[in-house]
Q: What sequence folds into this?
């Protein structure tokens, strides 16, 4: 059964956008925002970015700068006080961020007749009354074939990597160096990556990633080699061809456009990436990554 519609997804994201506008001075915890929208915390940040066109952090930062611009234009408060309200302890940092967003310094903006405001894909800007007037959900053009598939739980051996995703290589090397001599890597072995954190939210040194290989027979954990069972269930499956750097665009389309149009809800576990070939075997443009997005049954 498909319990939701694209209009429902829009309504839920709009509820979050309205909450953000009303609480710009507060700590806008992503888990709390996910709860407001009734989305899984694992997938909310990708749904938000896919539909709004910027991350939660980017959105909040921009709105705070736009609020600062409002006070510069219509008020008489000191620039130092306005910068503190925008979340900047140092005036220099505020001035630099403001110039990047508006193309001029705060003082020049204050003296301008009708200065422009930053462009945004979503049409959402700071509003003094907190109302959202022109929300335009982003429609991605990265269309791909997606199939709905039932998968069984998958036992895996894994090595946990903590740190930036770009540095997961040693975890894979450690896992394969352990599994190879034991005969656990064969033609049917699946190489699976499980990402738990959003690098736009989580500190780089706290990002978690599991490098996994599928198991056909029971094995015991050993040292930093763990054993777990990846959950089964209903998944939306698509395959990305190209460099891993292109996965962001795929996720933006999958979560921001396809998911809302499909009517499905995300499941409560992380996305699984199955690497169908290896970067040391094929050119980056020929890399194949199978994305498995869990859905509610």
A:
């Amino acid at each position: 059964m498909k319990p939701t519609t694209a209009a429902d997804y829009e309504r839920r994201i709009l509820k979050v956008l309205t909450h953000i506008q009303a609480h710009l001075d507060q700590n806008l915890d992503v888990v709390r925002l996910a709860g407001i929208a009734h989305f899984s915390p694992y997938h909310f940040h990708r749904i938000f970015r896919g539909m709004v066109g910027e991350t939660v952090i980017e959105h909040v930062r921009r709105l705070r700068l736009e609020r600062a611009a409002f006070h510069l234009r219509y008020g008489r408060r000191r620039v130092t006080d306005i910068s503190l309200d925008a979340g900047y302890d140092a005036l220099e940092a505020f001035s630099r961020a403001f110039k990047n967003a508006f193309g001029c310094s705060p003082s020049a903006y204050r003296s301008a007749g009708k200065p422009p405001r930053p462009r945004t894909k979503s049409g959402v800007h700071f509003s003094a009354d907190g109302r959202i007037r022109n929300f335009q959900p982003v429609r991605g053009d990265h269309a791909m074939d997606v199939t709905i598939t039932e998968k069984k739980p998958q036992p895996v051996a894994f090595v946990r990597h903590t740190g930036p995703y770009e540095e997961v290589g040693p975890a894979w090397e450690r896992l394969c160096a352990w599994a190879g001599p034991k005969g656990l890597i064969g033609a049917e072995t699946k190489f699976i990556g499980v990402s738990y954190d959003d690098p736009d939210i989580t500190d780089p040194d706290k990002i978690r990633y599991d490098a996994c290989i599928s198991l056909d027979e029971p094995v015991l954990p050993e040292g930093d080699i763990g054993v777990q069972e990846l959950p089964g269930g209903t998944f939306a499956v698509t395959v990305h061809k190209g460099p891993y750097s292109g996965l962001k665009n795929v996720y933006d389309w999958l979560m921001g456009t396809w998911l809302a149009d499909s009517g499905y809800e995300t499941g409560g576990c992380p996305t699984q990436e199955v690497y169908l070939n290896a970067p040391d075997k094929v050119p980056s443009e020929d890399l194949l990554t199978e994305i498995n997005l869990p859905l509610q049954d």
Notes: The domain at 6-111 is CATH 1.10.10.60 (Arc Repressor Mutant, subunit A). The chain has two domains: 6-111, 147-295. The two ends are 8 Å apart (CA to CA).
